[in-house]
Design goal:
337 residues, alpha/beta, Rossmann fold, Helicase, Ruva Protein, domain 3, two-stranded parallel sheet, 16 helices, 8 strands, 10% strand, ATP-binding, P-loop_NTPase, ATP hydrolysis activity, ATP binding
Length: 337
């Protein structure tokens, strides 16, 4: 029979309408059932999953809008995808979860707000250290709102030629009105750096002023998400243009435990000594803890098992910490100490 964690994962994926995760957990339950000797039930479960997959492929899943496929000049400026990630897949503080759920709710009821002369929250600034979930937040917002994620590619957007970056920004903002989506400006400090910065001040001012003007004029139904690791570098004028500033921080012990339990919800976990796990995870970001969980999960799956031990997880976390210690930045810091 299914474990308690597998049942919880099944219910979570159902309530969040995450069909792919639902099927994955169902197949894991089938494998667990077969291992216990009930091959008939396992075969029936697999057949039901496959039947559901065929029906969905035949009927198609209705979307709010068709998948966006950038063309022309826009094709080199944004990369489009259609994520299935939901907020339930993320480990967030109550404050951040409330801010994001509020934005999603307002987007879903934007017509109602507009009939009363108000616009929904649709301009979000995400700030915090690397790997704390800023990019995944944009992905989850797109999944929740059933919108394409339009990842603005800064390497194509920012050029050395005077005025060209502003012209390309104009193309992106025009696209927001034509194709509703979640437009992500990652590493936003490249655009929004303060106008008092010492490097090429004139061009920085022109690009930032253009962005501020486009933000003022934009009245589309698209969601704009800007993410940065360096809030202190942003120009003060930017903060007035965003509806909400969401601050992320490295995971504490509670968040690490929740992340591990959530990421490995489809496995049977044994021999967990949380203090040892938390010690091994100390200093790691959300993304690094998630990747450690994935590494331990892959080892378990390839070993033909669905039971993951605490020692396997500690080993994966310690390996990830070792990568950080041997990174060029860490070596440089150590040499200066």
């Amino acid at each position: 029979m299914a474990t308690a964690e597998q049942l919880k994962a099944l219910i979570k994926s159902h309530t969040s309408s995450n069909d792919e995760h639902f099927r994955t957990v169902a197949l894991q339950i089938a494998a667990h059932t077969a291992k216990q000797g009930n091959t008939r039930l396992a075969d029936e479960l697999r057949a039901l999953v496959e039947e559901g997959r065929r029906k969905q492929a035949t009927a198609g899943t209705p979307r709010a809008i068709p998948i966006a496929r950038p063309s022309g000049e826009l094709a080199g400026l944004v990369a489009a995808s259609y994520p299935n990630t939901r907020l339930i897949d993320m480990v967030l503080t109550e404050s951040i979860r409330h801010q994001l759920e509020e934005a999603v709710q307002q987007h879903r009821q934007r017509d109602r707000l507009r009939t009363h002369g108000f616009a929904p929250k649709r301009r979000l600034l995400l700030v915090g250290p690397p790997g704390c979930g800023k990019t995944m937040t944009a992905t989850a917002l797109a999944g929740e709102c059933q919108l394409p994620l339009m990842f603005v590619q800064l390497h194509s957007l920012i050029t050395k030629y005077m005025g060209e970056t502003a012209a390309k920004l104009h193309v992106v903002f025009d696209a927001m009105a034509e194709t509703r989506g979640v437009y992500l400006f990652d590493e936003f400090d490249a655009i929004g750096a303060t106008r008092t910065a010492g490097n090429d001040v004139g061009e920085i001012r022109r690009v930032l002023n253009s962005f501020l003007q486009f933000m003022e004029r934009d009245d589309s139904d698209s969601i704009i998400v800007a993410a940065t690791n360096f809030m202190e570098m942003l120009d003060d004028a930017l903060f007035r243009r965003f509806d909400d500033v969401i601050r992320y921080s490295p995971p504490n012990s509670k968040a690490i435990r929740s992340l591990i339990e959530s990421r490995l919800s489809s496995f049977t976990l044994t021999g967990l000594r949380w203090q040892k796990l938390l010690t091994a995870a100390k200093g790691l970001s959300h993304a690094e803890v998630a990747r450690s969980c994935d590494a331990a999960a892959r080892t378990t799956i390839l070993g033909g098992d669905t039971t993951l031990t605490g020692d396997q997880l500690v080993q994966a976390l310690s390996a990830r910490s070792g990568m950080r210690l041997h990174s060029p930045k860490s070596r440089k810091k150590t040499s200066h100490d």
